[in-house]
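Hi V.,

Quick status before I head out on leave. The structure for the redesign project is tokenized and pasted below; the design run finished overnight.
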């Protein structure tokens, strides 16, 4: 199973050499809250708290929120067919549709869009080559010709 928010916070905090109290002071939360999050007693935090953690820990914008609120299926634009660095799996941006991921791939000049699906204990990953607008799976319904 993927990393939880608490595990990610602990990993990032320890990488900086900070105690739970240090992080609490910097992120404006209580040390017991951080302890509960890291041990799994508390599984969720508000988006505002996650953003503060990201800022003080130097995590990419949205990375912790993605761990906490990942949908059952999501899309991403990616530069390679195979996932070279699994630690990048949970970093966004994420999209709910293939069309949105295609737009992001085109914007970045990347050749692939990837569909992820949460599965009990793991996830499924399938890469697709970036397709043109003529592909019906890629074009919003209102833009399709009948």
């Amino acid at each position: 199973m993927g990393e939880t928010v608490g595990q990610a916070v602990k990993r990032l905090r320890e990488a900086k050499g900070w105690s739970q109290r240090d992080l609490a002071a910097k992120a404006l939360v209580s040390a017991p809250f951080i302890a509960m999050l890291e041990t799994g007693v508390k599984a969720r935090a508000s988006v505002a708290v996650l953003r503060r953690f990201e800022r003080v820990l130097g995590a990419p914008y949205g990375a912790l929120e993605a761990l906490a609120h990942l949908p059952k299926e999501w899309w991403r634009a990616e530069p390679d067919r195979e996932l070279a660095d699994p630690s990048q799996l949970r970093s966004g941006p994420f999209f709910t549709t293939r069309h949105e991921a295609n737009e992001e791939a085109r914007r970045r000049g990347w050749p692939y869009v990837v569909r992820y699906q949460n599965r009990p204990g793991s996830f499924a990953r399938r890469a697709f080559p970036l397709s043109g607008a003529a592909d019906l799976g890629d074009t919003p319904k209102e833009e399709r010709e009948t």
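Above is the designed sequence. Strands lie at 73-78, 112-119, 122-129.

G. will cover questions while I'm gone.

Best,
W.
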